[in-house]
Please model this.
Amino acid sequence: MSNEPSTTRVPDSPFRPEPGDRDLAPQFVLPLVVRIERAAPPARTDALETAARAVLTMLADARSTGDGEWAEAVRDWQDARIRKVVRRARGAEWRRAEALPGITVTGKAAEVRVFPPVPLDGWPKDLARLQVSGTDLDDPEPPAGADPTAPVLWLNPGLDMSAGKAMAQAGHGAQLAWWELDDATRDAWRDAGFPLAVRPADPDRWDLLTAGGLPVVRDAGFTEIAPGSCTVVADHPALR
Model:
């Protein structure tokens, strides 16, 4: 599922809907692959939370910063539009994906592997052949209520998104929160293992959440939903 968010929080943001200088830069994408075995697919919420943690893990990894081996690709990706693509794999496909440089993040049962950014038209062949469709997942039981003292990525309750789309949107929300935090808060979040929850917002609270000064993801409208739709509010305790 290919997704690019937008926001109007800062001038020429990689998350804004209007064209800007970032559109003139070479475009990169952050690949995420979710493991979906036929006999044991992960629960939807587990997959969403694991994808968000995978994005944070990539951003915090030493190889993504300074002179790290992935740092140039991460900088090029963040200097352009921030794109994420979620694909699915099983069996031998998953094993081939695991052999490529990247990081596998596990949830309760979900497994998501995140890879260093690649050019929009320069995917490794073992990732390019993976399917974007077929990422529809369900929660066997309603997820427990979110811990109000922990970060929560609130999903727009009025939008019907596939699991792949929602995984990318949750990743966008986590990234926006990461950018807003100071170094000490980032370090504490990383050291705790990036605890977070992804939950649909109460419809009665959605307008308050989007107007409350927290980071808001606005989708660029390439797939599934209308351009400019608010998809996620990133509610981190340090940003309240």
User: Anything to note?
Assistant: Helices lie at 44-60, 71-79, 91-98, 125-128, 163-180, 183-191, 206-210. The CA atoms of residues 156 and 231 lie 5 Å apart. The chain has a mean pLDDT of 89. The longest helix spans residues 163-180.
